[in-house]
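One chain given next:
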Amino acid sequence: MSGQTSEPASGPTGDPTPGARAGQLLRDVRAARPLVQNITNFVSMDIVANALLAVGASPAMVHAPEETAEFTPRVDALVVNVGTLSKDSAHSMEQAVTTARVHGRPWLLDPVAAGALTFRDEVIQRLLRHRPAIIRGNASEIMAVARAAGLTQEAAAPRGVDSAHTTQEAEALAAKLARHGFCAVVATGEVDVVTDGERILRVANGSPLMPRVTALGCSMSAVMGAFLAVCDDPFEAAFAATALYGIAGERAAAHAKGPGSLRVAFIDTLYAIDPQDVAANLRMA
């Protein structure tokens, strides 16, 4: 991260910089308090709900297939995480994304461990047909989704839920996937890559301690869903949430003694961080 500097509030033309725009979207989330439905994995539900509350959004953990068709039209955004997948949860996910498309609700796909198992990849393929606004995963997951979409023959299985690749390796496929799916794609890692196939931004904030806390990535997807709820541009929403998350993780890690204290400090930091903090502390790679 050497040589990377925080950006000023505006560019040479006077337009808001990416950090300033990200800060404004944080204001918008807190003003709107969007309702975000999360069909997520069992491991992550607690931190997902608390991260959304800390950032100013309202979490809903409605998973049952019997309820999704009735509930999804009421939400501002939907986040689907395939972490602890089952036949029932897959049915609920497909029902929810179908309903979201019909009612014009934006949705995000978190393809946890894509490329690792056949059933998981088949479900991801079916979900992709419903056009997520954002796909967010680690580098290996994004590469595996690109393979599932027929964009590459290269295998990219992760190590469990951990990435076996860098975001630099995944960047070209992330852009190709974004163009193919008419969506924004975020590949997270030491440097986070955000692209819509044309635009691309790289965020260098974060801490090596963050991957030591389970489900921080899952909660990042949920927070990204909150930004998606208040922004018509999925690329801008994805970038703003990525910037916020990296900065919050970095600041929390400065006060943490290990993964346990980081988890607590991270939620506190998400709650306390303000738009000026985002604009002032963003580091681009």
User: Anything to note?
Assistant: The beta strands are 35-39, 58-60, 77-81, 107-110, 134-138, 184-188, 192-195, 200-203. The chain has eleven helices and eight strands. Residues 234-253 form the longest helix (20 residues).
